[in-house]
Design brief:
Blueprint lengths: L3 H12 L13 E2 L12 H13 L18 H13 L4 E5 L2 H11 L6 E5 L4 H9 L3 E5 L4 H10 L6 E6 L11 H10 L3 E5 L14 H4 L8 E5 L9 E5 L1 H10 L1 H4 L6 H16 L2 H18 L13 E5 L3 H13 L2 E2 L1 E3 L10 E5 L6 H17 L2
Parallel strand pairs: 1-10, 3-4, 3-5, 5-6, 6-7
Antiparallel strand pairs: 2-8, 7-8, 9-12, 11-12
Length: about 375
């Protein structure tokens, strides 16, 4: 038994058709995972990781402690140097996950009296980190630079202001105008923070991300990159100045008070970044994105899809019950497409989220959108 208040919250979720459950992995055509380049199943990366560990005589299973105690083995510095070079930044600090990185950064960097302006659709992990900070927080309308500029002009000149956005939004797949945003932030003497979780590996030469593709590295105070999406493994890093890295090592509690990632995880990141430089998978992914957008129009579905040039494409189907029903119908035809329900997204903006991959075939893309068209048109 659990306390009555907790049971009532669970019951409410059931009533709203929004109860989350851990289901068995479905052996279906993948249109739901973040494995955009297929790296998570790459035998080459797997074998190269094993080879790297053997060549460097690394037989250790765990880190044995936090990096500040006993877990800062040499491979950390090696991989962080690779990340700094690849992403053209002064330093990189590895965290155990994107959630840990966002919690650690936003709970420690903004200080009492500082101001955080964040996009209203910002990721839950950033929101959680912001709630732990002592800064004053305000949201601006999604990708609305006019609203952001107005808010920046209202704040006092002597206050430290942080502006937070994502280069690709995980629940919409769209992107802000980062060039214009960086100019507005710079003009107002604020600090720009960009979550690149769904851009790294996909955009720019060798998959460096949207910030580098747009040559904005020097305009951004901090970037978050994750390895659990296109990179196909686990962990995350904060990219920024050497001073920022030193600060986070001293004050980011999610970095300080946790056991470090094991050597195998670091070796996998190393192998995946090596693969990024030569892979043809990114080209295949962008071909599939272009095909998907063409098929949206061909099936007259453009009115329900959010405009996106990324690997994430979402169509709005209001109501948890309705969107779950359509997802289940598509799954019975062997395609793994997942519904995104409220309260994860706003009520009335429930959606199907299609994640595209380098390994999806033309036939699969054509067929899944034909099925969607059929089920949407027949839905009450």
């Amino acid at each position: 038994m659990i306390p009555k208040k907790l049971q009532q919250k669970l019951d409410k979720r059931k009533e709203n058709n929004a109860l989350r459950q851990l289901n068995a992995s479905l052996n279906l055509v993948d249109f739901s995972s973040n494995d955009y380049l297929g790296f998570s199943k790459s035998e080459t990366i797997f074998k190269n990781t094993h080879k790297y560990l053997n060549t460097h005589h690394i037989t250790q299973n765990g880190a044995t402690g936090s990096r500040l105690l006993s877990g800062n083995y040499a491979l950390f510095n090696s991989v962080e140097n690779i990340l700094s070079d690849f992403h053209n930044c002064e330093s990189a600090l590895i965290f155990n996950s994107g959630y840990d990185a966002n919690i650690g950064f936003f709970s420690s960097v903004p200080q009492r009296g500082d101001i955080i302006l964040y996009d209203e659709f910002i990721h839950a992990s950033i929101r959680d980190g912001i709630q732990l900070s002592k800064a004053k927080t305000y949201k601006f309308k999604h990708n609305n630079l006019t609203h952001l500029d107005e808010m920046l002009k209202r704040v006092q000149e002597d206050e430290t202001v942080y502006v937070v956005t994502e280069s690709v939004f995980s629940m919409d797949g769209d992107s802000p105008d980062l060039v214009s945003m960086s100019q507005i932030v710079k003009t107002n003497n604020a600090y720009l923070i960009i979550d690149e979780a769904h851009a790294v590996g996909i955009f720019g030469e060798h998959g460096v991300g949207l910030v580098q593709k747009l040559n904005l590295e020097n305009e951004v105070f901090a970037r978050l990159i994750t390895f659990g999406k296109a990179i196909g493994c686990h962990g995350a890093a904060i990219l920024g100045s050497e001073s920022l890295k030193h600060y986070l090592i001293n004050f980011a509690r999610s970095f300080i008070y946790t056991t470090a990632l094991p050597p195998h995880a670091l070796a996998t990141i190393h192998s995946a970044y090596t693969a990024l430089i030569s892979t043809k998978n990114r080209g295949n992914l962008h071909k599939n994105i272009a095909l998907f957008k063409t098929e949206i129009v061909k099936n007259q579905l453009q009115n329900i899809f959010i405009e996106s040039h990324s690997a994430i494409h979402c169509c709005i189907i209001s109501g948890n019950k309705t969107v779950k029903s359509i997802a289940q119908k598509i799954q019975t035809h062997r395609f793994n497409v997942k519904p995104i329900l409220s309260p994860t997204v706003l009520k009335g903006e429930e959606r199907l989220r299609f994640c595209l991959h380098s390994f999806n075939s033309e036939k699969e893309i054509v067929e899944v959108l034909q099925l969607l068209s059929t089920f949407v048109s027949s839905s009450p």
